[in-house]
């Protein structure tokens, strides 16, 4: 795609995050029919579905159940770790959804009765539904090596669900001495936000560069390659001396790591087949599967993710339940916030059509993912997707989107950061109102 066209695409997706395909406009002119929809999870996927259902047809009774009064976005949370943002600056409330008539319930879903079409909560409430949306995000599948347990996250945070864990990791980074080591243990595929660990390493390297210049970042990876690798390594070379003896960042790929034998919170060490890394701060990001409620409701496959109809996001296990966002198997779509937003709009169209007895059109989707590797140094990947009926996949549209050029000018890198911040403000408004 030409730079002109790509910039136009980014302007469109950054400034008008409501785009999810031509099919999204359909329910606004459809005949009102009502119905009850219960949405489990108030993250990007759940909140977007709730909002677009209500905008499509105010007669639909939409209930969103979420345990937290405030949601912290995972996207832009790495800037909290570098000190570029505060935790409050990635927080959003549900007031915008309440204002358009969505019933937001602060509670934890404890069970989903697919046959009886009921959702129950830990607080003792029961909600009947005509359609249910499950947008639970991720849960962790802890590795089998020594030292790993849920309790360890109080000392060795994952910070892969934004909020208190983000604050804990930031506090540890501030407390570590100059000359210390930050060790990031990156997860195997698939996982939420594929470029996220490497943006995190970049942001923390930037923090060290200006505040603890003798400190180092070590990435122990269970992969031999990663998302936007060329762009990240280009940024690391330019900003942090990557590839030299004075590099702030050291990336150790899967072949060089071998097997991770143990992570020991008591000694703050990570032992691999080839070395033992002694660190002042360890950020362990575990392997991931669908959120716990999806597992307990029997919505997951043998790999821990949810198989869905690629047009409607209706579960292939339990009819009447739709699963979207990080938990779903959406073929080539990355597990990202923008993917969840786009899928939420498509899911809202599908549910609205089902409640009215109408057929669903062929959906299209968009995704844009920004990474900020340093001060005024950003890049992105953008794509348009469409459902391929013959192959039953969500596939990228040939010639759409693309990557920021590797030889982009300093001005273009700076503008990418501005686009990222504009995109962030717009997707918050588009999702939570």
In short:
The protein has helices at about 5-15, 45-55, 80, 95-100, 165-175, 195-210, 230-240, 255, 290-295, 335-355, 410-430; strands at about 35-40, 60-65, 70, 90-95, 105, 110-115, 120, 125-130, 130-135, 140, 180-185, 215-220, 250, 260-265, 270, 275-280, 280-285, 290, 320-325, 365-375, 375-390, 395, 400-405.
Overview features:
433 residues, alpha/beta, five-stranded parallel sheet, 23 strands
Task: Describe how the helices and strands are arranged.
Layout: H1 3-15, E1 36-40, H2 44-56, E2 61-66, E3 70-72, H3 78-82, E4 91-93, H4 95-99, E5 103-106, E6 109-113, E7 118-121, E8 126-128, E9 131-134, E10 138-140, H5 164-175, E11 181-185, H6 196-211, E12 216-220, H7 229-240, E13 249-252, H8 254-257, E14 260-264, E15 269-272, E16 276-278, E17 281-284, E18 288-290, H9 292-296, E19 321-323, H10 337-355, E20 364-374, E21 377-388, E22 393-396, E23 402-403, H11 410-432
């Amino acid at each position: 795609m030409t730079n002109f066209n790509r910039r136009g695409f980014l302007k469109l997706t950054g400034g008008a995050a409501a785009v999810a395909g031509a099919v999204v406009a359909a329910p606004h002119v459809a005949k009102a029919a009502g119905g009850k929809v219960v949405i489990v999870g108030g993250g990007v996927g759940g909140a977007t579905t709730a909002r677009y259902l209500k905008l499509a047809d105010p007669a639909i009774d939409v209930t969103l159940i979420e345990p937290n009064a405030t949601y912290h976005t995972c996207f832009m949370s790495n800037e909290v770790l570098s000190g570029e943002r505060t935790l409050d600056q990635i927080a959003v409330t549900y007031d915008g959804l309440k204002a358009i008539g969505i019933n937001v319930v602060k509670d934890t879903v404890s069970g989903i009765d697919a046959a009886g079409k009921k959702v129950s909560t830990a607080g003792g409430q029961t909600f009947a539904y005509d359609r249910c949306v499950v947008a639970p995000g991720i849960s962790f599948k802890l590795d089998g090596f020594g030292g790993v347990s849920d309790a360890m996250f109080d000392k060795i945070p994952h910070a892969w669900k934004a909020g208190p864990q983000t604050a804990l990791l930031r506090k540890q980074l501030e407390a570590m001495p100059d000359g210390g080591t930050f060790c990031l243990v990156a997860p195997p595929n698939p996982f939420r936000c594929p470029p996220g660990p490497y943006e995190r390493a970049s942001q923390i390297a930037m923090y060290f560069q200006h505040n603890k210049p003798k400190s180092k970042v070590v990435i122990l990876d269970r992969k031999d390659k990663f998302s936007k690798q060329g762009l990240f390594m280009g940024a690391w070379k330019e900003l942090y001396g990557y590839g030299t003896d004075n590099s702030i960042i050291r990336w150790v790929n899967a072949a060089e790591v071998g097997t991770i034998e143990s992570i020991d919170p008591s000694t703050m060490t990570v032992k691999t087949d080839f070395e033992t890394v002694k660190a002042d701060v360890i950020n362990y990001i575990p392997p991931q599967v669908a959120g716990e409620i999806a597992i307990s409701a029997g919505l997951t496959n043998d790999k821990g993710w949810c198989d869905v109809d690629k047009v409607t996001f209706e579960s292939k296990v339990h009819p009447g339940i739709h699963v979207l966002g990080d938990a779903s198997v959406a073929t080539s779509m990355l597990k990202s916030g923008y993917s969840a937003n786009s899928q939420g709009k498509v899911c809202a169209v599908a549910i609205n059509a089902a409640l009215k007895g109408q057929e669903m059109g062929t959906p299209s989707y968009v995704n844009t993912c920004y990474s900020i590797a340093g001060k005024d140094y950003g890049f992105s990947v953008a794509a348009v997707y469409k459902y391929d009926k013959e192959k039953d996949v969500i596939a990228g549209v040939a010639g759409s989107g693309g990557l920021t050029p590797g030889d982009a000018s300093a001005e273009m890198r700076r503008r990418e950061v501005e686009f990222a911040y504009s995109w962030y403000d717009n997707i918050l408004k588009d999702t939570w109102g």
